[in-house]
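Give me the 3D structure for Dnd system-associated protein 4.
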Amino acid sequence: MSRVRIAKDKAEFVKSLVTANSKDGVFETYADVVMFAASLGVKQDKRLPLGGISTKDPAPIGVEIFASRGYDLAIKLIAIAQTQDPQILSSYEPAALEQRLHILEEYANGGLEILREALRGSIDYTERLLLMLIAERVKPKTETDSFDLSRFL
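Predicted structure for Dnd system-associated protein 4 (153 residues):
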């Protein structure tokens, strides 16, 4: 059975983000934390190898948890965006699933590093995360849709 692993150096931080483990927790499950962190890692292009693996709490998370929460499509999108290889989406190749999960783990690890830095010293994780999301939402759009004649000069 395939599982998503969490880096040992981020285990305590991941636990602190889950509501069942901490009064400051924001997410319901470890899978939610991993997907948010992976999305952040993809957005900021930060992919880090895991190094040591957390074996206790949080233990590696079964892939069926991600599927039950509707994250399987997001995992596939992250993988194909990274590899540009449609074979990574194969349901018949166990190696393809392992490669997708490996990519997810590394982006989640990068995203957790970003989150840990952003939340350092924060009293209320919820408030700080909301501020991060709002800042991302209201970020000024760059004018890339206009026709630029300078490229013909």
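The chain has a mean pLDDT of 88. Let me know if you want a second pass.
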